[in-house]
Design a protein that fits this description.
- With about 350 residues, the protein is an alpha/beta fold.
- The chain has helices spanning about 5-10, 25-30, 45, 80-90, 100-110, 115-120, 130-135, 145-160, 180-190, 205-230, 250-260, 275-285, 335-340, and strands at about 35-40, 50-60, 70-75, 120-125, 165-175, 195.
- Strands 1-4-3-2-5-6 form a 6-stranded mixed sheet, with helices on both faces.
- The termini are far apart.
Length: about 350
Amino acid sequence: MDELESQDVAHETPAKDVFIAPSIHEPVILTGASYTYHTELPQLIANDPSTPCVLGVDEAGRGPVLGPMVYGLFYLPLDKHHALLASTHHFDDSKVLTPAVRSSLVKKLSTENTDLHQACGWATRVISARDISAGMLKPTGAYNLNAQAMDATIDMIKEVVAKGVNVQEIYIDTIGSPKVYQQKLERIFPTTAITVAKKADSLYPCVSAASVCAKVTRDAALEVCYRAYASDGGTDNELTAEGWGSGYPSDARCTSWLKNNMDPVFGWGPECRFSWGTAKDLLDGKGAGARVDWPDVDNDEQAMRVTDFYVAAEDDKPGEHFNELANWFGRPAIEAVSNR
């Protein structure tokens, strides 16, 4: 999966005082479930639903072994697109903004009576590490990361349109081939002008804003997961006490945390993507974990049945039909009396 250059690690690492955005649902995150968050319609759009709007989508956390992948969606009136986002508030690709700047922008978005709060709406789809791995590790019909990402994008756009937002233009940072992805979206949203491009987060302000919302949400989700470990005493060595860093395999703090906090049977919690090579290699390492051999359920002759686990009593007569469950709770009273 994605590797980070050393100079990028600092930008991908959550800030020590990361802003816990309203898109964070802590109890849900700790269960390992995925979920979607939407803001209320901004005042300018709610007052006039016919207002033409522009919408952007981008993600954060596609490559890490730890934490969710978060898709962000951002929309606002078309006539405020560049003036409000680029000129006034200087939104840019989240990867070139410091964690402090990203948090500050989302705070403004979440604060009532600010120009951003009144004009802009946003949403996030938190795709948990558990669900990413479950999809990718399916024995048949694997649900790969691109398919999960596209489905999240399409679902969020449909949800915003269902709220009555008059979306006229959509800009999306590509997954794979921009042309193929754009054609797919145009079939689903035929009346909307759609642009899918590489590096869209640095070209279109609404995509930049979506990337910021996604990144701040992912950073906060990582913080929530790490605090759960820290409160349980699970981070008891000097290096991992500093946290697990950015969550990327190329981050030494991340790999050290994985090595030092691996359960020999279960590995890690729902914050880990077991489908990633980093996690697989650690689990398969010599003496690292307990090996489990599962029966081949596709082979009927070799498959085990529940009744194979029941053993006949020693005093059962040979040739007599044995009902494995008949005496599970004792023999019936009538039968017991008649046999005296």
